[in-house]
Design brief:
The chain is α+β, with helices and mostly antiparallel strands. The protein folds into two domains: about 190 residues, no CATH class; about 130 residues, Alpha-Beta Plaits (2-Layer Sandwich). The protein contains eleven helices and nine strands. A hairpin with a 2-residue loop joins strand 1 and strand 2. The protein is rod-shaped. The N terminus and C terminus are likely disordered.
Length: about 375
């Protein structure tokens, strides 16, 4: 894996790497392991061709220099994945090796005087490397390939006649590399498809959990939780608008109704009141029997005045909803359904609503 940033260049890789240069054009590299495998296969083919030519050209200086060069080339491929080099040096070395891949492939093809079988075998392996991984550096590799072929055709002092055994070995090496590459691509496809399905399942699971969570939390509080911000315990003073509601005559009614009727009445009442509170941006802090405590101004506040107006508007909506609930309960056979009485208050408070000062709004709003 390569990761880092230098000037305007970004480099990161897991299954591959990505470069962003001054032009902000994205370059996608294949896995370094895949590149190492291609270079190993290329070195095996190169050594096979050179050793096969030993009988014809003997101890030629070019041949003696080519064999160590192949090992240096393979060692350079190893260095591109080592953390001992700085990020920028690994980037430069990787780009150099990309060009060298094509250059060496072209030189080997030219060395065999463009022998058809060798050309097809090495060309197929090279194309699988740059096309199978969909590398954006393919132009650099192709430039190296044609440069190596032309330079080898013009400058190499000799060419070698490739025997049938060498042709067979090179073809088998290239075929094995192509087969391994295709199998790796197939496994990667299945792995990505499985991970995609796993992510979809997790997304469905989280969506379902969020839906269940939405039943018990206000939209503002739910949004604050889902942002993923780290919330630390501490004291914070804010001006909140706090609302208390209580059903008048509930104690007497609770003694008259059977448990099933009482449970149904409470569930209907609390569900209706909670939905109204959420609609006006309130947070239901506590439900104690038939009592509800709602506050405005945290975690989101639209201002003290706007929060107070939202609280009073919510109280009016609750009063209207209570009238409808009373009619429904009478239809269900409850002779004296409870009435709702409330008072909204305001003052400095903590998140857990430790209120040092409560100022009633009854004198201002006339709430009953």
């Amino acid at each position: 894996m390569l990761a880092g940033r230098y000037d305007n260049t970004q480099w990161h890789s897991n299954s591959g790497a990505r470069l962003v240069f001054m032009t902000w054009k994205a370059f996608t590299y294949p896995s370094p392991k895949l590149q190492e495998l291609y270079r190993l296969a290329l070195c095996i083919c190169g050594v096979t061709i050179l050793l096969g030519a030993w009988r014809d050209i003997g101890y030629h200086s070019g041949l003696l220099a080519a064999l160590p060069a192949l090992f240096i080339y393979q060692f350079g491929s190893y260095l591109t994945t080592q953390p001992t080099l700085s990020t920028i040096n690994r980037q430069r070395l990787s780009l150099t090796m990309e060009f060298s891949d094509g250059l060496l492939t072209g030189l080997l093809i030219a060395l065999t005087a463009f022998e058809p079988i060798i050309t097809l075998a090495l060309g197929a392996a090279f194309l699988v490397t740059i096309v199978g991984a969909m590398k954006a550096t393919a132009p650099l590799d192709l430039f190296g390939l044609f440069s190596g072929a032309l330079l080898g055709f013009w400058l190499l002092p000799f060419s070698v006649a490739v025997s049938t055994a060498v042709q067979l070995l090179v073809t088998c090496t290239a075929f094995a590399y192509c087969l391994f590459n295709v199998n790796m691509a197939r496994q990667t496809h299945f792995m990505l498809a499985e991970q995609h399905q796993s992510i979809l399942r997790q997304n469905d699971w989280l969506t379902l959990r969020t839906f269940h969570l939405s039943k018990y939390l206000s939209p503002a509080l739910r949004k604050a939780i889902l942002t993923g911000k780290d919330v630390k315990a501490g004291t914070q003073e804010k001006t909140l608008t706090v609302f208390f509601s209580d059903m008048e005559g509930f104690t007497k009614l609770a003694e008259e109704l059977d448990p099933e009727q009482l449970t149904s009445l409470l569930n209907t009442y609390l569900t209706e009141m909670s939905e109204i509170a959420f609609r006006f941006g309130g947070t239901v802090d506590k439900v104690i029997g038939d009592a509800i405590m709602v506050f405005f101004g945290d975690p989101e506040s639209r201002g003290v005045r706007a929060d107070a107006l939202s609280c009073v508007s919510m109280a009016v909506a609750m009063q209207q909803a209570m009238t409808e609930l009373q009619a429904r309960w009478r239809a269900e056979g409850i002779a004296n359904p409870p009435a709702c009485a409330w008072v909204s208050t305001a003052g400095p408070a903590r998140w857990v609503i430790l209120v040092p000062k409560i100022a009633s709004t009854t004198p201002y709003w006339g709430a009953q």
